[in-house]
Write a sequence for this structure.
């Protein structure tokens, strides 16, 4: 149960949130035509006769799009409907050539499922289950462009007919943090499955945010829908603003109108766009040009067999290897990072040491240099080699950091860097004892204080010895020999 509340003049208010996420299906063609779907193409260069609604053109379902939607449903343990049907959603808009959108209202492809979220990043074990009401497939509309001419609006039909999955949650979220966690988890699942690239900046994943408020325990209030929000941060900001706005309206004696709103990313506010339509306003009816979808058992079995290890299963596997819950959560948040880490383990790295190094040294360096895991100059096999050199005593922790910095700059293998630059750690007791003797000889005051009971000075002697040996001495050997020499 979330403790997030809006503090109003009349007391505490609870926020009720549901998300309708539109995810562009990964496919090299549109839902009902063979036109391409590449992002960034010149306007109106990816439009078939079907997409342009030329007379006599009939839609033909792209079964790869259907397959990806089914796989997505299976990934959230949803009901897969063996029989589903397409409906026409009728409305006029300049970027909708047919005058209707082909969607699924009455008989969706995917039924009820659930997504488990961890709203608190600091406590991944504290989870909440968010219900998913349905996933249906539908075609996208085109795009109106208002900034190309001072007095005219242009229409780009490249997106017309692009396949979307609309993933409709239950109104189970009670805070911006829960909505953010849900959206991040859903995006991760889609990217693991490969059914959507999750690129919110390019519009291939966007959310309609339904928000209402109520006194705790009361019945549901009237909701508003904020359309096409395209980042997790903006979704959370839209919820926070809209919830506070609704509380203020109600407490001032007004009432909330069911409407569609837009989020302004510059001001962090929402504004009214139009009154919210109901299903009957769209005059839904079965599309006469499309037969119902009837899925065979062999098709469903193939979909299920194609699913990869999903984020929750991977996180539990990592925890079973001794990796902390927090690190397992970090490592599985993005599919590329998880695949990179799996390759590191396959190359022989010890799980706990590998997780510590990856989440601190590697991710820290990538953030510092503005890279992501896909453009990392250090490969999993090179990282495994570096960790092995630390494990066998060839490199100390400080030397390993030096080698890693060179790896980032050059892409060279660690063993070669160690050889070329003479960075190998030494455990030569004779050489270390000679340096210890010099350090003690030039530190009579510190020696007297140490032997007089000031044991914290032991660190001073360790530091001076390591410094004199350029960081190449084996710290364990230094500690052992120093204890004997200082006794």
């Amino acid at each position: 149960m979330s403790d997030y509340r809006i503090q109003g003049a009349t007391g505490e208010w609870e926020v009720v949130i549901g998300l309708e996420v539109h995810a562009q299906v990964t496919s090299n063609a549109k839902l009902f035509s063979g036109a391409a779907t590449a992002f960034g193409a010149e306007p109106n260069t990816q439009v078939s006769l079907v997409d342009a609604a030329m007379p006599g053109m009939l839609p033909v379902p792209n079964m790869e799009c259907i397959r990806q939607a089914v796989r997505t449903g299976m990934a959230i343990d949803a009901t897969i409907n063996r029989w589903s049907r397409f409906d026409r959603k009728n409305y006029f808009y300049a970027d909708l050539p047919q005058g209707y959108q082909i969607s699924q209202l009455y008989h969706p492809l995917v039924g009820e499922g659930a997504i488990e979220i961890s709203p608190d990043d600091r406590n991944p074990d504290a989870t909440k289950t968010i219900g998913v009401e349905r996933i249906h497939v539908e075609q996208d509309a085109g795009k109106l462009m208002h900034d190309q001419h001072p007095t005219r609006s242009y229409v780009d039909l490249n997106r017309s007919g692009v396949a979307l999955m609309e993933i409709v949650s239950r109104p189970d979220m009670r805070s911006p943090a829960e909505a953010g966690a849900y959206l991040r988890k859903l995006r991760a699942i889609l990217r693991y499955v490969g059914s959507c690239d999750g690129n919110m900046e390019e519009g291939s994943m966007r959310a309609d945010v339904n928000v209402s408020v109520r006194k705790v325990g009361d019945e549901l209030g009237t909701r508003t829908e904020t359309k096409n929000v395209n980042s997790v941060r903006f979704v959370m900001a839209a919820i926070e603003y809209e919830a506070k706005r609704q509380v203020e309206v109600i407490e001032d004696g007004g009432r909330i109108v069911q409407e569609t709103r837009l989020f302004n990313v510059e001001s962090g506010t929402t504004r009214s766009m139009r009154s919210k339509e109901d299903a009957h306003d769209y005059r839904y009816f079965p599309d006469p040009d499309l037969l119902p979808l009837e899925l065979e058992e062999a098709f469903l079995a193939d979909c299920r067999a194609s699913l990869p290890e999903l984020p929750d299963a991977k996180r539990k596997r990592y925890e079973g290897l001794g990796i902390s819950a927090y690190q397992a959560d970090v490592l599985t948040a993005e599919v590329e990072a998880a695949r990179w880490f799996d390759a590191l383990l396959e190359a022989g790295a010890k799980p706990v040491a590998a997780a510590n190094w990856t989440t601190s040294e590697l991710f820290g360096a990538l953030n510092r240099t503005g890279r992501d895991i896909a453009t990392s100059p250090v490969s999993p096999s090179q990282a495994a080699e570096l960790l092995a050199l630390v494990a066998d005593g060839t490199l100390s922790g400080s030397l390993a950091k030096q080698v890693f910095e060179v790896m980032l700059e050059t892409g060279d293998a660690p063993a070669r860097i160690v050889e070329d630059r003479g960075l190998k750690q030494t455990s030569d007791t004779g050489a270390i004892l000679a340096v210890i003797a010099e350090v003690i000889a030039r530190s009579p005051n510190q020696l007297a204080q140490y032997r007089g009971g000031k044991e914290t000075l032991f660190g001073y002697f360790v530091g001076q010895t390591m410094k004199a040996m350029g960081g190449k001495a084996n710290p364990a050997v230094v500690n052992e020999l120093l204890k004997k020499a200082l006794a």
User: Anything to note?
Assistant: Residues 6-300 form one domain. The chain is about 40% helix and 20% strand. The CA atoms of residues 103 and 269 lie 30 Å apart.
